[in-house]
Design brief:
Layout (H helix, E strand, L loop, with lengths): L1 E6 L5 H14 L5 E6 L6 H6 L2 H6 L10 H4 L3 E7 L7 H7 L3 H5 L7 E8 L6 H14 L3 E2 L24 E3 L10 H23 L1
The structure holds flavin mononucleotide (FMN).
Flavin mononucleotide binds next to α1 and β4.
Length: 204
């Protein structure tokens, strides 16, 4: 079973979550896991000014995804930072190049799942994930979230991301907060959960 994790990250938060999702997926037997990032759209000089260039160097080794990568997977887990309560433009741009795959019904029946990172605790993590699901449904994908059997999402002991829609992290307004152990554990759970379900679908 082939599972791909396709993300965009500007400062590394979504990337760290993506690595944890991959770790979880790898725990499921016979799962081939590939980590990919969507192409950057922001000009280099702007990345430099915003400090993102240095941050992005930490995951520059991750190969860049092409739309056909989706057709070649049994399950795809997407990671995007929240931008105004929605996915980022880089991810939207990638998805907007999948019209041919849509016309060919190439993704129908594949598993799709989403995780995110936002600056604020109530900055739109849930709207980002749910609005992302709309695109996956147009492609006929089978959506998998983060069930409440992952009880870490119910904790009141600490501030944390995570909801039944998917794993998430809170980066803080200045980006200073990296994913907590609780959030990374939920990301690993999501990877494992999607891989387990996709393996069952592949067998049918
Ligand atoms: C243009 C823009 C819009 C953003 N919109 C939101 C938002 O609606 N809610 C929020 O909590 N954070 C928002 N953020 C903060 C990002 O979500 C945050 O930088 C991101 O989660 C960090 O993840 P990354 O390091 O993977 O890029 C925004 C950031 C930018 C640059």
């Amino acid at each position: 079973m082939k599972l791909k994790i396709i993300f965009y990250s500007m400062y590394g938060h979504t990337y760290h979550m993506a690595e944890a999702v991959a770790e979880g997926a790898r725990e499921v037997e016979d799962t081939e896991v590939e980590l990919l990032q969507v192409p950057e759209l922001v000009p280099d000089e702007i990345l430099e000014l915003s400090g993102a260039k240095q941050a992005r160097a930490a995951f520059a080794h991750v190969p860049v995804a092409e739309p056909d990568d989706l057709a070649d997977a049994d399950a795809v887990i997407f990671g995007t930072p929240t931008r105004f309560g929605n996915m980022c433009a880089q991810m939207r741009n990638f998805l907007d190049q999948t019209g041919l795959l849509w016309a060919q019904n190439a993704l129908v029946g594949k598993v799709g799942s989403v995780f995110t990172s936002s600056g604020l605790q109530h900055g739109g993590q849930e709207t980002t994930i749910i609005s992302f699901h709309t695109t996956l449904l147009h492609h006929g994908m089978v959506i998998v979230g983060l069930p409440y059997t992952e009880v870490r999402q119910t904790t009141m002991e600490e501030i944390t991301g995570g909801s039944p829609y998917g794993a998430s992290t809170i980066a803080a307004p200045d980006g200073s907060r990296m994913p907590s152990e609780n959030e990374l554990a939920m990301a690993r759970f999501q990877g494992r959960h999607v891989a387990t379900i996709a393996a069952k679908l592949v067998r049918t």
